[in-house]
Specification:
This protein starts with a strand and ends with a helix. The chain contains 13 helices and nine strands. The protein has a domain at about 5-145 and about 175-200 and about 260-275: Rossmann fold (3-Layer(aba) Sandwich), CATH 3.40.50. The model has no long low-confidence stretch (mean pLDDT about 95). By secondary structure, it is α/β, with parallel strands linked by helices. Helix 10 packs antiparallel against helix 11 (about 245-255). Strands 3-2-1-4-5-6-8 form a seven-stranded parallel β-sheet, sandwiched between helices. It has a two-stranded parallel ribbon with strand order 7-9.
Length: about 290
Amino acid sequence: MNKILITGATGHLGKSVVEQLLKITAPENIAILARDPGKADYFKSKGIDIRIGEYDDVVSLQKALKGIDKVMLISAADPFTRLQQHMNVVDAAQTSGVKHIVYTGVSIKNPDSSANQFLIQSHFRTESYIIKSDLNYTFLRNNLYTDVIPMFVGENVFDSGITLPTQEGKVAFALRREIGEAAANVLLQSTHQDKTYEITGATAYGFEDVARALSLLSGKEISYNQLDPAAYSAHLRQLGVPDNFVQMMAAFSADIKNNQHAGITRDLQVLLGRKPAGLTEALKELYGL
């Protein structure tokens, strides 16, 4: 059995992958990369191998990756530093004898015209760097998580409705839990070498659809109000949202408006072996309705 290491395992997606792996393989076949061992107690309690290493310390990465056959590189959070950090993991993987790397990127219709260039391009540059390496690879290009909908609509959605500048744009949302399950299946199977998967939901939805689904689930009438992009950014700033986050939300909203995340594939369904959750089912889970 191959030894699998997950980076970013203390994050939401990483933990989801590990929990799915534990359902179908023994814990001794799993390792995680941790910078702070104190944050890995949950995984240690499950019998998982804790490897200490930091993205910016190549020597620590080389040590952590010894004896590992497959690495799942979950993209790092900091867009300013992650490309170099990803390159460090790839370099260490080659030096340490890793055979296969699975990388979580982004599914988007046209990267070159994205309003989110700063965030998007590091994913594709990472893919290019991996392709040039000696490693076998699998790219999981994830669409927007259904789990980010509460962030977009705000915590007062059941009282004030949804106000966004996304117009009629749609997104093929997918639950992070199901994306993690699909990733775990890829890690445990041997048929995904040098393949790229566009991980999307089975249907694309707009925020009018989100409002309709939340209305059905809650029994309240949730409105969807379209807002001018400049007014939306000004509104977020009035609420005290940090400027860098305002810019990020505006860029994501622009991409949604332009249907950059509306593409649909069957890749998630194939990797899961079933149709992924639809919008209403997913929102019911996320909101506990």
